[in-house]
Amino acid sequence: MTIKAVRGVHDILPPEAPAWQRVEATARRVCEAYGYREIRLPIFERTELFARGIGEVTDIVQKEMYTFEDRTGESLTLRPEATASLLRAYIEHGLHVQPKPVRLYTLGPMFRYERPQAGRYRQFHQLNVEALGERHPAVDAEVIALLVELFRGLGLGERLTLQLNSLGDPPDRAAHREQLVAYLRANAARLCEECRERTERNPLRVLDCKRPECQPVLDAAPALADFLGREAAEHFGRVRGYLDAMGLAYVVNPRLVRGFDYYVRTTFELTTTELGAQNAVAGGGRYDGLVERLGGPADPGVGFAVGMERTVLLLGDTTPGTQPLALLIPLGDEAVRRLLPVAQAARARGLAVDVGYGERKLRGELERANKLGVAYAVIVGDTELGKGEAIVREMKTGAQRAVPLAELAAELSALGGRA
RNA sequence: GUGACCGUAGCUCAAUUGGUCAGAGCACUGGACUGUGGCUCCAGGGGUUGUGGGUUCGAUUCCCAUCGGUCACCCCA
Q: Which of residues 169-228 of A touch strand B (CB under 7 A)?
């Protein structure tokens, strides 16, 4: 049997590539405009980095990592997310001595061992944006504004909802968790089977349950918002104030819970209803304390990840690729030798031109030109060689005119500049 | 990891109760059309019907396993 791609990974074929290029170009443009600089990171790390960074008890670390041993027996893992790697590099290279906040972004593949489904793959791509070393709530607002601007730039603003929440500081969460578990246990009889299990495993997740029979219990459950300490509450209020000042719309969702252990205070997601069960297109939050946990200075941080596949899915395949400008059609080998340098010159100026090999019939070459979608066909046969000219045919209209061979490269430039 | 549906040519799909059922359209290549495309017509290449077993005189069709896809759960981007 022929070899096929492994489960959950996929090829991005030429028709889809323009949409990816558009997302990447927009991401870079917006990030740079906000003062973020690119950092490129390895796609595997010591397993321990993710265990410590993401949290030992998360699903990702417990069952979704691609972990293997190298030849020395060291345990390595294909990165399931980028923040841990980025912070490792931040610490390792002393980037924290730069003016705060240190603004970084990175782009690339992530790996998680999950059952594939709509908008979910084992190798997928994320854009990560992180602001390190500053705890001011304006930074939270800044990265959120960047995120919103990115999707506005892609024309997807209207199809997404910004959801916002505050998880409070660790002591706030501990206090809330204690009361929440007590409450859920007391009302276990009115909860679904799954929620009863989750009460012990991951109580915050219970609040996410969509089953109608659970809603009455959940509606009356202790709300994390009521447990926020004074500082966390003030921080959240100021983040909202800054977002309001920038005119950014959001929905406060007290049940917004995220999958990594490291989030504190602000968390947010950009959600859609268009991708089936995978409604999060981007998600992030504040992670004060994480840099320190990874062995670095006590620098706070806030950032987010954007799912590129999901973004491209929303974009659809409406992004046009670039078409070659012209097909140069030599009839015979003498004409090939005459046209090759012309093509070379045109390409050196950045024009996309294709050249035939002089062996097909003119009819066939024009068919090819038509299929390639070029704007112009340039025909040079014995007749033209004799007169020292080329025929430039505009494919759309069929209009033709003669151009001296010596001026052909310049003529193509002019046509390319106009197109 | 759990469940449901699905798996025939590069793509989209046919094949009557298991019995010339291995086909069509699109795409590709060539020709009709000696140096002028988009239309039309003709021809050609391309499939061990996902894979491996089983039932049967005979399996694309039935059964089992396995791999993969899709969707949902879980979780998340």
A: 194, 198, 202, 205, 208-210
Q: Which two tokens stand for residue A369?
A: 């030109």
CA nearest neighbour of A391 among A399, A382, A383, A380: A380
How confident is the model over A386-398, as pLDDT tens digits?
Answer: 999 999 999 999 9
Q: What is the DSSP string of A15-68?
A: TTHHHHHHHHHHHHHHHHHTT-EE----SEEEHHHHHHHH-TTSHHHHHS-EEE
| C-alpha–C-alpha distance, residues A213 and A328, integer Å | 69
Residue linked to tokens 């066909």: A377
- Whole-number Cα distances in Å, A274 to A225, A253, A271, A322: 29, 19, 9, 28
* Alpha-carbon dihedral sign for residues A17, A310, A146, A98: negative
Q: Which nucleotides of B are covered by protein (CB under 7 A)?
A: 1-3, 28-31, 33-38, 50-51, 67-77
**pTM reported for the whole predicted model:** 0.91
Q: What backbone torsions phi and psi does residue A73 show, to the nearest 5 degrees?
A: 90, 5
A57 CB less than 7 Å from any atom of strand B: no
Identify the structural domains of chain A with CATH numbers, from first to last.
Answer: 17-169+229-315 (3.30.930.10), 326-413 (3.40.50.800)
Tell me how many degrees the CA angle A297-A89-A120 measures, rounded to the nearest 5. Answer: 115
CA A330 – CA A390 distance, rounded (Å): 10
Q: Is the CB of A132 under 7 A from strand B?
A: no
For the cut 90, the answer to whether the pLDDT of residue A295 exceeds it is: yes
Instruction: Return d(Cα A162, Cα A139) in angstroms, integer.
Output: 17
* Higher local confidence (pLDDT), A345 or A214: A345
